[in-house]
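Minutes, methods subgroup
Present: GH (chair), OT, SY

1. OT presented the first of two proteins processed in the latest run. Sequence and structure tokens recorded below as shown on screen.
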Amino acid sequence: MRILGLMIVFAAAWISSMCTLLGAEITVRELNRGRNGFFVFDPELVRIKPGDTVHFVAVDRGHEVHSLPGMIPANAEPFNANLGDDLDVTFVEPGIYVFACRPHTPMGMVGMIVVGEPGNIDKINPSSLSGKAKVRIEALLTQVRSGS
């Protein structure tokens, strides 16, 4: 009986550690229209832990997603999907990742992922973006700084 109890405790600990190693999975949808307007990512701000995976889903096929150069952590790998393709990205490097839809960036189709601590927040400079994209990234940075 004692051995059975130890085996159950060991199995529970092993399952718990595997769930931690596998990380969470979050979906970001690429939409023509969402709760925040036209040409949006939903959600546009995601907070995750290192090792978590984000599924970018092109719900409306006229979109793609890519990381913006200079707006990801220094040691992070950039990511890029083709138009209409879904993309899974596992984030391991802590920091802020800014992403966009190439054809709809000027219309504000941008978003942000915060992985762990936003250590590179002072290096994110939206001034190179145009129109609504710049305004949205500035608003998302304000949210991250305020912790909301």
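2. SY then presented the second protein from the same run.
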Amino acid sequence: MKAKATVLFSGGKDSALTAILLEPFFDLELVTFSYGHDGTEMAAQEAAKALGHLHRTIYFQEGVLDTSLQMLLDTGYPKDALNYVHKCAVETLAQESEFLADGTKREDRAPVMSNSDIRSLEDRLAVHYIRPLAGYGSKTINLLASRYLKFEMRPSEEHPASDFEVGLRLALKEQKGSDVINDIFPAHHQHSIVIGRKSFE
């Protein structure tokens, strides 16, 4: 009988490829975090269904969104806010999981946890934190995702997805307007949406 692993899942190609790489070793549950007001988790639910794995949505505790938005406004860039949100999600799942994985990759600057935070997490909560893509560069990940997954690239401002940045963009736009988004986030941001596996029959 396989052990169970929980995968932090956005519905994009990175987290979907993470799930595929873990399939030989674990029974998987894909978990998406939502700010609870924008319905962005629906994209991840559909992607998880297409991959054939169980899916669950968890809503962030009160205050996480407000803290994240204030970080965006204070710093003027998304890195700190994205890392904060990601750490909140990982810490939440680590309290209930023996094996916990996410799709952060080698070149990521955000969202990603520092090595010291990872060691602290594992020591405090007796969790095994797994980053299957940490040894892969973006070029290789895109190649593997294109071989094994059907996915689409979509502009974030037009097609809400389940990743942290899209949710923060939507919330910030509601509160402060489009001009603030353009000042803080990079232009022409895109995200991936997984719509299925590729068949090799």
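Chair's summary of item 2: The chain has one domain: 3-197.
Next meeting: continue with the remaining queue.
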